[in-house]
């Protein structure tokens, strides 16, 4: 809950990724499975003209649509989605660092003057986007 409160303060203060000042807010929807996060994100995306960035550790995998409750292709057409279905499910070493490094879509969305809406239930994925909480193996070796 403390992380969610901090994220809410950062968004309301107009800060984007890792505290960088932004003209547009970064919206974050974090919650448990089955609480309506995707529906809310779609509604906000349509109303605000934003784009959705999935922060779900299982929705990154291709072909696991039903078991991960991915939004349908039709719903994805209603509002642009990012970070969904791009990892081969046979890859066993996909990490939160890989996710964070690939999530450049957020900066691209800001560059197009649109609002990114990060939605998911994988707290560590969301934290990796909001705060510099991860240490790379190279940084760890030098400590």
From TrEMBL:
Which GO CC terms are listed, alphabetically? mitochondrion
Q: Which UniProt keywords apply?
A: ATP-binding, Nucleotide-binding, Transferase
Q: Which SUPFAM superfamilies match?
A: P-loop containing nucleoside triphosphate hydrolases
Any single GO BP term: tRNA modification
This entry's Gene Ontology molecular function terms read: ATP binding; tRNA dimethylallyltransferase activity
**Superkingdom:** Eukaryota
Similarity field: Belongs to the IPP transferase family.
This chain belongs to the protein called: tRNA isopentenyltransferase 1
């Amino acid at each position: 809950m403390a992380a969610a409160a901090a994220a809410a303060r950062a968004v309301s203060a107009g800060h984007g990724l890792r505290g960088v000042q932004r003209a547009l807010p970064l919206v974050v929807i974090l919650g448990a499975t089955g609480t309506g996060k995707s529906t809310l994100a779609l509604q906000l995306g349509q109303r605000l003209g934003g784009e959705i960035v999935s922060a779900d550790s299982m929705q990154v995998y291709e072909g696991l649509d039903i078991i991960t409750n991915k939004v349908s292709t039709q719903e994805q057409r209603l509002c642009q989605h990012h970070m969904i279905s791009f990892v081969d499910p046979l890859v066993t070493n996909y990490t939160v660092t890989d996710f964070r490094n690939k999530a450049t879509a957020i900066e691209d969305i800001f560059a197009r003057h649109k609002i990114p809406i990060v939605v998911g239930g994988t707290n560590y994925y969301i934290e990796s986007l909001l705060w510099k909480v991860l240490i790379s193996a190279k940084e760890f070796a030098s400590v």
